[in-house]
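ok so for the tutorial part 2 we go from a plain amino acid sequence to predicted structure tokens. step 1 is just haveing the sequence, like this:
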Amino acid sequence: MTNVATLEGLVPDRLSPRTRKIVLEDYCLPVDIGFHDFEVGAPQRLYVTVEVWVDESSFAAEDDESAAWNYDFLRTEIGRLVDDRRFNLQETLARAVYDVVAARRGVTGLRVSTRKPDIYPDCAGVGVELSSF
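step 2 — the prediction. this is what the tokens look like for a chain of 133 residues:
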């Protein structure tokens, strides 16, 4: 194993990270979502992906848990959102997730997407996406 200390100062400035991203990909959960009569009260599988770009101070530089951006926050807050209410539209749910994450310290960019995988037999899913860029 290479000693990290021996690499210090050897990475050229042009290769220094310009962005830092944290990802929660395809979090699958049952959600009471939809406006059709057959959807109300019948939870459907929904995938949520959140990509969070954070500033340098919010991205751990040391191998220490206390320096890390907490992934559990993403899962917990999304779970809380879908447990606390029903949604008619993916757009509304995506906006709610977006707002919760965007309000966090250190966030410099954000992409939230939702996808229902069981709507059409000939499609991987139908969904929506919001992003800051």
